[in-house]
């Protein structure tokens, strides 16, 4: 390799590491929040909504919006003490401000006419993904109509600067229909008059956006691609990853498996470093021979033409895929009992994830294959640079998530 090419590729390595290191650990899943809304028909002309709101975010946002410093002081102190009774008491003592914040940003309409909200009972506390959530029950009195309702959510908008990309996961039994919907700033409302394919698109888009927004999952996939020399290898690795994360995703989203995010997130970060480091170790062990693309090297070594190292890699990918599935499920946080409607929403969400995953493979792997065939040494350096950057970032995230820095 010429000195100029070597310098250029060293520069590429540095650039990859610098680019991946720009975002802190929070960017892996971001400072985001999820609102949970259960919407059901009540007595004639009434709709009931049960809202789950992330407690500390709710206190800060409501206190700031309603200019209520006592709510912030008492609510924040209760949060820091981890006292759920005090947390509920803080909200109930300032219920007017808390409810006003919600009803200005969350609404129900009937045939385009606004329904009037009224609080039912006190605020209560619960937990989702290890985080305290405040539950608020509202009863909406709606004008008479033909039975078409719309739910709109603008809770915790980006403009408040506390979080970005808030999503509201709605489950509903309304107007003789049942289902789920995913709302965000770009798609803030849904109507019970929506067709099945519109609801399909909502969860497909949510799954696709979650994978693209979760840079740790993307880096794990890039590490798999960089470490696969043949199409068979990446197909088997991606299939193993897909099967594994699909299993735990469904089990966790249905509430059948529960693992704290304090465990899941560090292991996801470690998986990135391990898969990328595995390839770097192979490069070091094989030296210059690693740059050769010998498609027949593994012929006759058992099923799928994999040797022991290949099967070991698939097993490692499968195990880490199980953990990544728990991370995907955290995007929805649905813990209700099994239903076919819920299962449909989860499957569509997973299809969105897989569509983006396949698109990334289809885009990146052919480019690396062409580079490896035409310039094997350059291909070695590029894949090594990608893996080095991914490995460093995975270790950084693992340290940050493990120690909470």
How would you describe this structure in keywords?
405 residues; alpha+beta; seven-stranded mixed β-sheet; four-stranded antiparallel β-sheet; 57% helix; elongated; disordered N terminus
Summary?
This protein has helices spanning 3-21, 26-29, 55-65, 69-81, 84-93, 95-103, 196-213, 215-226, 231-253, 261-286, 308-329, 340-374, 376-403, and strands spanning 34-41, 46-54, 106-110, 113-114, 116-119, 124-128, 131-141, 149-153, 167-174, 177-183, 189-191. It is an alpha+beta fold.
Which percent range describes the beta-strand content? 15-25%
Sheet having the most strands: 7 strands, mixed
Mean of residue pLDDT values: 80
Q: Would you identify the regions where 5 or more consecutive residues have pLDDT less than 50?
A: 1-30, 290-302
End-to-end Cα distance, whole Å, is 41 Å
Q: What overall geometry do the principal axes of the alpha carbons give?
A: elongated
Discrete helix count: 13
Number of strands: 11
Order of helices and strands: HHEEHHHHEEEEEEEEEHHHHHHH
Class based on secondary structure composition and strand pairing: alpha+beta
Overall radius of gyration:
25 Å
Helix proportion range? 55-70%
